Amino acid sequence: MRLRKRKYLLGLGIALIVAASSVPLIASAISKDTKEESGKAVEAKVAELGVSKLEGTWRVQVTIRNCDSAAELRPAFPALLTFGREGTLVETTTGIPPAGRTPGHGFWTRNNAAQTYTGVSEAFLFNPAGAWIGTQRLTQIIALDDAGGFASTASIEVIGPTGESMSKGCATAAGTLME
After folding, report:
1. If we measure between CA atoms, which residue out of 128, 131, 153, 133 comes closest to residue 141?
2. Contact 83, 91 (CB under 8 A)
3. Is the pLDDT of residue 8 over 80?
4. pLDDT in tens, 70-80
């Protein structure tokens, strides 16, 4: 029974990763002429205004991977990530049915490296009977690309109700800003 529970938790734990990033809607802060400038000029204006390119809602394709070999463990699935201006993060996924996992809530921060961010979110996990069985914690490194998208790598940990680590996993993701 305990092995079955661990396998179930491992499956739930590995079932999600998300990532995200691109130029947010900053129309009110940037003039029409500025919007028509090259991508580099817009990036400079964004930095000057203190607006993060990560802010906004992203459509993400998540791929669960073997942590040692990076081999794909299941077909990619969609997720949504929303990065708020004040560093909040909300995510939801199709990787686990809604009855088995709540949306994730967390935070994001800009890293020292150009166009990279760290996002951390947690979601509650439930067994088929509806009992809480743990928390899924996702920690991802997100790198923006010059085409207005992002790529991320993530570690997944399932934490049991008493705080013990139940399982760990890895994932990669690619995102595009929702417009």
Report:
1. 153
2. no
3. no
4. 999 999 999 99
Question: Which pLDDT value is given to residue 15?
Answer: 38
CB of 115 closer than 8 Å to CB of 15: no
Contacts of 28 (CB under 8 A, 6+ apart): none
Closest CA to 136 of 17, 20, 4: 17
Q: How far is CA 60 from CA 19, 36, 77, 155, in A?
A: 6, 27, 8, 16
pTM: 0.72
**Mean pLDDT, residues 88-109:** 97
Answer yes or no: are the C-beta atoms of 163 and 144 closer than 8 Å.
Answer: no
Task: Tell me which amino acid residue 117 is.
Answer: Y
82 to each of 40, 54, 61, 111, 160, how far by Cα in Å?
Answer: 24, 9, 14, 18, 26
The Cα 1–Cα 35 span in angstroms is: 59
Output DSSP code: residue 47.
H
- The whole-angstrom separation of Cα 80 and Cα 25 is 17
Q: How many helices (H) and strands (E) does the chain have?
A: 3, 8
Cα angle 23, 84, 78; round to 5: 70
The one-letter amino acid code at 64 reads I
